[in-house]
Amino acid sequence: MKALVLYDSIGGNTEKVARRIHSVLDANDLEADLIKVASDKDLDFLDYDLIFIGSPVQAWLPTEPLMRLVKEKLREYRDAGEIPPSAPLRSGKFGVCFATYAGPHTGVGEAIPMTKWLRVFLEHLGYMVLDEWHIVGEYHNRKELSTKGRLGDIRGRPNKQDLRAVTGQVNGLLARLKV
Question: Of 18, 24, 39, 130, which has the fewest CB atoms closer than 10 Å, so is most exposed?
Fold first, then answer.
């Protein structure tokens, strides 16, 4: 099984989570690529059996570079005839969408639309999306919001406990897939 951990990160929260996911995959002897979003047009999602795709939440959506990559790849696959009507599942293709969020106003509600957006992309490609993970992260743009939102004091998140939970989620998912 070949895995991809594709992510974007602005303040480092999502990168911490992506690196943890990758380290767990590596510890389980899976071939896994860790890629931060760039203008890498050669990336072929269909080369991977298991995709983890994540971003910090920006206005309820992924970052602009990740959205641009997803839209470009979707157009490429559609134009190549890789996305048939009804987007049938591809055998042995699985995905997980993850978000880091500070949710200073409404909490996790600010993150859910973002993982749904990424989920639909993977589903168009025929991947069975197994889960959506929402991980609290410190608010970097306006630090005072890391103490005044609905989530209380989230400075330093994702912390060791959050990353241990990610480890458990990845291991649980691999056990479910019997990898």
Answer: 39
Burial of 108 (0-12, 13-18, 19+ CB in 10 A): middle
3-state secondary structure of 37: coil
E strand or H helix that includes residue 48: none
Interval 76-131: pLDDT, tens: 999 999 999 999 999 999 999 999 999 777 889 989 999 999 999 999 999 999 99
Q: What are the beta bridge partners of residue 6?
A: 35, 53
Judge if pTM exceeds 0.85. Answer: yes
Laid out side by side, the sheet with 94-101 consists of 31-36, 2-7, 50-56, 94-101, 128-136
Between strands 94-101 and 128-136, the pairing is parallel
b/e per residue 18-39 (b: at least 16 CB within 10 A)? bbbbbbbbeeeebebebeebee
pLDDT tens digits for range 34-92: 999 985 568 999 999 999 999 999 999 999 999 999 999 999 999 999 999 999 999 99
The dihedral sign for the CA sequence 112, 132, 129, 15? positive
Q: State the Cα–Cα distance between residues 163 and 26, nearest whole angstrom.
A: 16
The angle, 0 to 180 degrees and rounded to 10, between the axes of the packed helices 13-27 and 160-177 is: 40
